[in-house]
Amino acid sequence: xxxxxxxxxxxxxxxxxxxxxxxxxxxxxxxxxxxxxxxxxxxxxxxxxxxxxxxxxxxxxxxxxxxxxxxxxxxxxxxxxxxxxxxxxxxxxxxxxxxxxxxxxxxxxxxxxxxxxxxxxxxxxxxxxxxxxxxxxxxxxxxxxxxxxxxxxxxxxxxxxxxxxxxxxxxxxxxxxxxxxxxxxxxxxxxxxxxxxxxxxxxxxxxxxxxxxxxxxxxxxxxxxxxxxxxxxxxxxxxxxxxxxxxxxxxxxxxxxxxxxxxx
Amino acid sequence: xxxxxxxxxxxxxxxxxxxxxxxxxxxxxxxxxxxxxxxxxxxxxxxxxxxxxxxxxxxxxxxxxxxxxxxxxxxxxxxxxxxxxxxxxxxxxxxxxxxxxxxxxxxxxxxxxxxxxxxxxxxxxxxxxxxxxxxxxxxxxxxxxxxxxxxxxxxxxxxxxxxxxxxxxxxxxxxxxxxxxxxxxxxxxxxxxxxxxxxxxxxxxxxxxxxxxxxxxxxxxxxxxxxxxxxxxxxxxxxxxxxxxxxxxxxxxxxxxxxxxxxx
Lengths: 264, 264
Hints:
Carbamate kinase, 264 residues, globular, alpha/beta, homodimer
């Protein structure tokens, strides 16, 4: 691990909340992950977390993902953002409790999307927090959208944007599963963990041509979000944040069970 | 009141919190003010609120106003911002309860200061929220500062910045007092309310030349912040938000007891 390396770590919503229950955080996991981050000794770090059961149910109730359809949706912007602030507060307080100088930077006021993709961003606060040797903490959020009124901006898209804009050394995605599998491990007991992926493997997904790699739904979207970072030479490690110690070891640059997405 | 006018209203920290007690909101006043704003029928509105007993004690404890002195201050950024989010949530929920489409836009991620003055800003989200016929809600906050690490950005400075950047029609400052007095009305029973001020009256304050106008401390700072707006032709009305009905009437453009700061 180089001293000047910048790591962006995502704490997935499925790792830090219980997805089945509305707004139920997994506080034990949040505290443990804060401890692992503190123990890693990494100095230049950006943390992005997902929404899990805080974000998705509200975004769904107000149909925020499809954009503006009626005024009834407008209160959903505030409610969804506030739910995300609530989860963010738990994450930030857990980090502070471990002595980490976490600074929350709410995405709703620094990103604008167009048809769901980041079109304008104000990342000076992120740079400034890093300049103070502190840790910017961002999260998936509802944002204003130039084409459709508003949109859900995923933590993954923020990770990808910041990794390219700031030239991150590497990215770690902490998931609720071990990584990318050949098929859904819950349905297929013979599913195998794919330890190594290249960006071109993911491009093939879009064409529906690759039968060997069954990455459906959320995981496919996540990988397509990460492919450009990997193509730019920034390795992305997908690892299970629910298994104690993996995030710590991944931050330290040790080899851990998971999926490494990178070129070469 | 013209249909296309844009009003920026500040809800002062001393109006919506009890300043003597740490983090004690005046929820009754917040609800009443939300009701007055809803009743006014104003369509294009930006709300900015102060921190009162949510912001000041923490900012003071961590000496955030003087900028970076040591790492011990860094956790103060998160704590102060979180306290402000807590108050903001009460304000936004009161507005939503009255049917107003309030959208919180946290200043920490869209403003950067230099030696305490706004040097960079990302106001596209404010424009976008207005474009949805919704109400941006901002507040005094801790922000990153290019010269001193961080700074306290007052709600007043945000009001002034947005009024000039967006060409507001007028500004209403809701205070915990009736307006500007000739001397401190708590100490001097013969203090008179000054109903009319011109920007040049305030410029004189800086030179300490004006004995007729005793605006010390907070009020002097507030007036100096507002002088450039008034000079640009945007009238600023200072009015007591603690007196029921005044904010409603001020929003409607009716004449109310208070101090009007304007040219001409």
